[in-house]
Each structure stands twice: as C-alpha cells, then as structure tokens.
Write a structure and sequence with these properties.
The chain has 429 residues and is mainly alpha-helical. The chain is 55% helix and 2% strand. InterPro entries: FAST_kinase (IPR050870), FAST_Leu-rich (IPR010622).
Length: 429
C-alpha cells in the first residue's frame, strides 16, 4: 500500500485540518501500522495535527491512542508522553472497567503517576471486574512490582465471592501474580488450588512447574494439589526435562512436602538426575542438592559434586549476584555429608567448608563474622543440634531489619554475656 503510486495523494497535508477527530486518530494509527517513515512530511503533519488537537479529543480517544502508542512506539515516543499528560489531568473522566484494565496493563508502566490514579479508580470499580479483568490487573501490578495492598484485598474479596469455576489460564496467572507480589490471601489460594487440581492431569510440564513454584514462593502448602503434581511427574516422566524436575524439587523443599509415594517419586528423580549434574548451572545445582538435603534424599554423588574444590571456587568467584548465598548452602550440604559418612569425601576442598565446627560457618562467609555469635549449645559436636545437621546462631536486628553487633548487648538467656547494653527500642534478637 505504501509503495503504491497513488498513496501520496491520500495524504493531503493542506486539508488535514478538515479531518474529524476520530478519523484523524484512526489515520495516525493506520500510518504507524503501515510503517510509514516518521521523517516524511505528511507523517509529521498528521502527528503535529494530533498534538494540536489533544485538548479536543475525548478521554476514550486519548486512552485508545495511548494504548496503541505504548505498544507500537514504546516509552520514547514524544506523542505518547503528551497523551499521558492529558490523561493524568483528565483522569476523573475515566469510566468503564475496560478502559481501566487496558490502561493499567498497557500504559501504566510508562507513567507511575497515571498508575496511581488508575489504582484508585480500579479500587472504586473492583466489584464490577470479571475474573479475566482481575487477572489482567494483578498481572499488571506484578510486572510493575506495585504491591497495592488495598486494591489486591478488594480484588481478592470479590474474586472469592464469584462461584463460577475459573479457567486454567486465569488460575495460573493469578497465582503467579500473587507469588511475585508476595501477597497472601488464604481464601483465594484455597479456591485456586481447588480449581487447579482437576486440571493438573492435562497441563504441560511448563504449566505444572510454574504453578507449584508460585505456591512455593508463597510458602502455601495444599496437600491434594502437591500430591497431584507429584503423581503428574511420575506419569509423565518422558515429557519432563531436568530443569522442570529441578523446579518441582525446589518447590517441594521450600514447602517441606514429602509425597505419599515418596519412594517411587524419588527413585524416578534419582534416575533422571543420573549423569545430568554436569549439565546444570552451578546455582541451580547447588539449590537442587540443598533441596534434596532438606527432603532427606541427598546422595553421596550429589554431595561430592557440590563439595568439590573446583565447584566451590566457581560459586564463590564466578557466579551471578545471587551466588553470594550459595556458600551457605554448601556449608549445610557439607554438614549433611557428615551425616551420611564418618569420613570426608575423597576430593573434599582444603577449606574451612569441610569442618563441621560452628567456626567454619563464619569463616566460609567472612561478612557474617561481625554479626553472628555461636550459641553455647552449638559448640559441642555431640549436641542434638549438631547431630541433626544444624548450627545454632543468633542475630540482633533493628526495627528496619538492619543487623547490630551481638556482643554489644546483654543476653539474659545465655549463661554469660559479654555485652551490657539493653536492646534498642524495636530491636529484636
């Protein structure tokens, strides 16, 4: 169309002022859709005319144009920012759930100020939203990391009052959004889990993994759903990749869930992991072995792999930002290794990591030395805490969760205390 010889005759810059507002907006959208070069005189003429007429456009026309520009032009569009300014000034004209939902999901990430107004309007219209509207709003909040508690509470209440069974896509998106925002609403979780359970058998491995990981993020255990996920993994072993299986194991460990048929389940897990450890990323492998330790299913080959000197060096020096926490996981795995065998593994690193004493925990993470003070109950290797693989320690945190030196403060719960100061107001041990 653009290359047709008669196309330029359609763009009559001299008569642009005679075009009606609605037609002008549709014309601009069409030109963007056709990929007309923004440097052409006719294109610039249409854009300039729209800019001049922004005050005369209705709110619905402004909203429609903003949605289109956000998808087509992105945040750098000058026209989009001008349209958003008009929307912010005229937000009281906002009517209808469709416009609210569309603006929140498509334009809200461009303007935090507009998103604040949209959240207020959504709270006002919460009762009128359909389940799909609620899904789109919660996803918009999740993707923008906006934990608007009043709005989430209102949406959750009205969602729990709707007795119609929700579709699979809505259920998965809702629990994902709640998990990403770390927002807890037990009534909604119960409804989602109950509605999800009949769908598990027909879901894909990606959907199953996404579902159980969302519940794990929330630390909300639903036994029937977790049993259904475990049975699904057993019935569809050939469809599962090792990554999907790792996601399920990490989720079960976070929920501290043991399947009723744990012997069959973990036999399948060990068979799938055989020969696959080398292909896993260091971070995922460390978390996997740590999760198996939590579930009491760790085996010597897994522990030898993560306690090898070369692997230990990788997670301490070459990993991503989150890898800073991995040495602590390795400490726990090292202590778990001591439960399975009375002697160190053949390739155990010559590092304090191999020592089961409380001091090794501190030396493996020097940044914790000023903050952690080993308790007397953890100093004896024969104590019950040591036998179960735990090292007891304590921290003092301010009301803002900032650490304070433990030795500076009185500890009446200990036989002897070095510090004399009382805890500051709001601090806790």
């Amino acid at each position: 169309v653009v290359s047709h010889r008669r196309f330029p005759s359609l763009l009559l810059a001299a008569q642009i002022s005679q075009v009606w507002n609605n037609t002008l907006v549709n014309l601009l959208k069409s030109l963007y859709s056709l990929g007309v070069d923004g440097g052409r005189r006719e294109m610039q003429s249409v854009e300039q005319e729209v800019l001049w007429r922004l005050r005369r456009l209705t709110f619905r026309q402004l909203a429609s144009l903003a949605e289109f520009l956000a998808l087509r032009q992105g945040k750098d569009s000058k026209l989009l920012h001008e349209v958003i300014k008009k929307l912010e000034l005229r937000w009281t004209e906002l009517e209808g759930t469709r416009t609210v939902v569309a603006l929140m999901s498509k334009v809200g990430n461009v303007s935090p100020a507009l998103m604040d107004r949209l959240e207020d309007k959504a709270l006002e219209l919460a009762e009128q939203f359909s389940p799909d509207d609620i899904r789109r709003i919660t996803l918009a909040l999740a993707y923008q990391n906006r934990r608007c508690v009043p709005l989430l509470r209102a949406l959750s209440y009205h969602l729990s009052q709707k007795h119609a069974e929700l579709g699979l896509g809505v259920l998965l998106d809702l629990i994902f959004a709640y998990g990403k925002l770390n927002f807890h609403q037990p009534q909604v979780f119960q409804k989602i889990a109950a509605d999800l359970q009949p769908h598990v058998a027909g879901m894909t491995p990606v959907e199953v993994t996404r579902c159980i990981r969302s519940f794990a993020l929330l630390k909300w255990l639903n036994l029937p759903l977790c049993e259904a996920v475990a049975q699904y993994a057993l019935d569809n072993t050939k469809q599962f990749s090792v990554t999907h299986l790792c996601g399920i194991i990490l989720s079960f460990a976070r929920l501290n869930f043991q399947p009723s048929g744990s012997e069959d389940f973990f036999t399948m897990v060990h068979e799938m992991l055989q020969g696959q450890l080398e292909s896993l990323e260091p971070q995922l492998l460390t978390e996997l072995v740590w999760s198996l330790c939590v579930l009491q299913q760790a085996r010597a080959p897994y522990l030898r792999r993560v306690l090898a000197p070369d692997f230990h060096a990788r997670i301490r020096g070459e990993g991503p930002p989150r890898a800073g926490d991995l040495p602590l996981c390795a400490v726990g795995e090292s202590k778990t290794k001591g439960l399975y065998s009375s002697h160190p593994p053949p390739h155990h690193p010559a590092h304090p990591l191999g020592s089961p004493s409380p001091a090794s925990l501190l030396s493996s993470s020097p940044e914790l030395v000023p903050l952690l003070q080993p308790c007397p109950c953890a100093s004896s290797p024969s104590s019950s805490q040591e036998e179960s693989g735990w090292v007891d320690a304590e921290m003092v945190l301010t009301s803002e969760n900032k650490p304070l030196p433990v030795k500076d403060f009185a500890a009446p719960h200990l036989p002897r205390s070095e510090g004399k100061k009382p805890l500051p107001p709001g601090a806790r041990r």
